[in-house]
Amino acid sequence: MAIAMTEPRKTKVLLYGLGAIGGFYAFILSRDSSVELSVVARSNLEVVKKNVNLFPDLLKSLLMKFAVLSCPHKIATTYDYIICAHKAISPGLDPNDFRSVANMDITFVILQNGVGNEEPFRNAFPYCSIVSCVIWVGATQDSPGVIRHTASEHTDIGLYPNPRIDATVEETRLEGFAAMLRAGGTPYTISDDIQVKRWEKVVWNDTQQWLSSSKESVSVTKRLMREVIGVARRSGVALEYGLVDILMERIQGMPGIESSMQVDAREGRRLEVDVILGTPMRKARECGMDVPTLATVYALTVAVDMRIKQALGGLG
């Protein structure tokens, strides 16, 4: 008598945002045969539907086999993982928009720059797990739906611990996402304290190469780094001031590059001000800290972002 064999249940993943970073991770996840992937593409939805070759330098013949949707409200299913790879601009995505596709067992994965990104999701879904990620991936969306990937490629991942959930369950969910990255062939590291990694990346984002092109700007860059590290330390994150020399050496050894904010400003897109500069500024104020360099860079960046907002007709 023949025994019917059933296929293993696939892990259902929803990826929100299909820009440069979202497109990169969509490719990685599409390599995992155990994943059933859906993506939400917003501004570039129609282009993505027509242009399946998202990585012309890398994926000459890959057809990405996933459902492309315009918003979570149009989805009639729930997922195991919801991966947020959209820009963290303000006002941004309301986590409550995922109510129709999330249940108590959902795990959110935050693939964004900045600090404090997890808090809105924890407030909206207090009984869900959150995997927080720090991305070191060189990817640029040269035009809608066409993404260029450079050599840089690494992801730091870790839990944003939820005391309401058993630690073993949380570790299993973290390992589940790590398994997807392994299957996709991209390097990653699991961090016991991902907030240290997030703040290190914020120090990097706050002081990228455009601030270190002359002797005068180098001294400003170092002051800004020390101020942000000081805010992190007062916030309970164990950053060391030696990070300044490490990052300065990295910056000065790199060829000329544009930061993500520079690219966004050039393309007339809103900037990720709040999570990269705004949260450190807010925490400095809460701690009563004097951070003149951070305050100046924050004010100037807000001004640029407001100009872009006005050019967009007041829209995000």
From TrEMBL:
Keywords: Membrane, NADP, Oxidoreductase, Transmembrane, Transmembrane helix. Residues 14-161 form the Ketopantoate reductase N-terminal domain. Residues 198-301 form the Ketopantoate reductase C-terminal domain. It holds the Pfam family ApbA_C. Its EC number is 1.1.1.169. It catalyses: (R)-pantoate + NADP(+) = 2-dehydropantoate + NADPH + H(+). InterPro entries: 6-PGluconate_DH-like_C_sf (IPR008927), 6PGD_dom2 (IPR013328), ApbA (IPR003710), KPA_reductase (IPR013752), KPR-Related (IPR051402), KPR_N (IPR013332), NAD(P)-bd_dom_sf (IPR036291). GO terms for molecular function: 2-dehydropantoate 2-reductase activity. The chain crosses the membrane at residues 12-29. One of its GO terms (biological process) is pantothenate biosynthetic process. One of its GO terms (cellular component) is cytoplasm. NCBIfam families: apbA_panE (TIGR00745). Belongs to the ketopantoate reductase family. Catalyzes the NADPH-dependent reduction of ketopantoate into pantoic acid. This is 2-dehydropantoate 2-reductase. The lineage of its organism: Eukaryota, Fungi, Dikarya, Ascomycota, Pezizomycotina.
